[in-house]
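Batch job 17 of 40 flagged for manual review because the log was empty.
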Amino acid sequence: MKNHIRPVVFWGALVLMLSASAGTAVGIQEAIQTTDETRPAKGQPDYMGSADAGTSIEYEIFYGLNDSHSHSWVQENNQGVVGVTYFQRFEGGGHEGSLIYRTIHPDGTVDSEIVTGGTRMERSVLLYDVLAQPHIFVARSNDVDQVIDHYYKSDSGLWQNEAVFHFYNWGGKFIYELSADLGPDNSFHLLVLKSRSDIDSDDYWNAWMNSYLFHISNADGSWQIELIHNYDMAYTYDHYIKCSCRQDIEIDDDGFVHVTFSQQINAADDPSRLLYATNKSGSWRIETALRNDFGARDDAGWFPSLCLDNEGTPYISCMYVNRVYTYSAVYCKLLLLKRVGDGVWQRQVVAEHDDGYYGSDGRCFTGALSHLVFDSDNVPHIVFSDIASSHWTYQRLNVGNIRYAVYRDGAWDIKTIYRQPLPAGFKDATEMFGECLVVSDLTDTIRVIGQELEVTGPGSYSLRLVEFAWVDPATSIADDPAVNLPEQFCLNQNHPNPFNPVTTFEYSLPRRSHVTIDVYDVLGQKVRTLVDREESAGSYTAAWDGTNASGVVVSTGVYLYRFQAGDHVETKKMLLLK
């Protein structure tokens, strides 16, 4: 079967404080509505550690088209139809809008319908029952009650709804995240994270404290709720990185529940860790899946995606953030965790460098927004994004590009399927806000649906949905003639040149090769190895920060960088100035 990548940008949906479409990214982009809305700005000390103690900053909350912070807003039914649920605000309507249900049929046709209207309905998830009928669960919160509503179709095809549960402030005043999965008995399972306050409230800064994680299900014939854990969830860091995800849920073939969630360790060093819980023993048992390095302020397990392989073994893809004592990030890498026994997890590094979306802090930041899926052959697939880490006034992380990884022949084959321009600032950037991966055995199609966020200034941003689909998962993306691959080996001149302190190298590979890039001084002494790995055909970038292998800054002068890919060798000069 021919492998065909079809990049599509569709359902442009929400523009805030923007008078026109935000432009194009891959040729087809359209914003179908504009909405003016003033976002609240609040001053708080910068607990991410980059600003001086007591410094006040302004932050704003970015609301996605789907803000469930889960991977459950895109699903495929047993007829090969892919459904999407999201919230489309009215033009000039603030938080008022319509809950939309979209379907992508196997023949490529797209349908859309309004489920209901209301306020603040961006936290929604979608499940399909065994009859391929859609079920949408929506979380709404106010200071008095927080409710989960269930929308489903009657025999006549009309949408109707029921209230699943009213919390009445049990566990806090806000439903922060919502995830869902279908049980083998056609039962619905919801994972609900409650926080003590709304993310738009004056208590935003401390909303992570004293959180409650609930499991709601109708497996016993009626809706039942149980508390999994009362804990401090990972920091409410929405002003530091615009999108977040702290939890996920999977139901196994025997109907047992598996969940993962991030916990803040409220100690002097402020690390976080990733926990895993299951009720297979008849009660909830919690264990640590990934912890921070001893004595470090690292964040272990951001953006977790939980998936059971075909044998029922739990796996989690997530991002590990290494930090210095002042809490600034040193690197972010994508990990795959495997549970091999009670409380025992193995870890594997999937990716530790970006592919063209980066900031001034370097090229070792990636692994955001991961979504893990196993196909029918038990092969893992992951979509994820890169991180642009920079210190402008204070440290902030931008999330960009869509990358796809598949594990074949004992190695991860990683391709970038959507590129975005480098961010100019935290509030001047094009980013990814969420990503969902569907690997279909019914249509032999791999599909990625994401939310693209464009921020043009304080209080001004737009959101649109983007889709990419290709067939024949056994064929590498790089073999697709629709992808413009390099025709020859090429090493470009570094830029900037002269430079201080960081410069970037771009190079191209027409075929899979083992690549090395080494830096030498004018005496021929090796200063540092920048690249030493196997890479697939494509275009790549590498960077040098003017340090040697020991991390010591080298002196001003001329340096050589040598590129070797297979038998191809190129050497160029560069000038480091101070």
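Reviewer: the log was empty due to a logging misconfiguration, but the result itself is present. Residues 233 and 263 are 5 Å apart (CA to CA). Unflagging and moving on to job 18.
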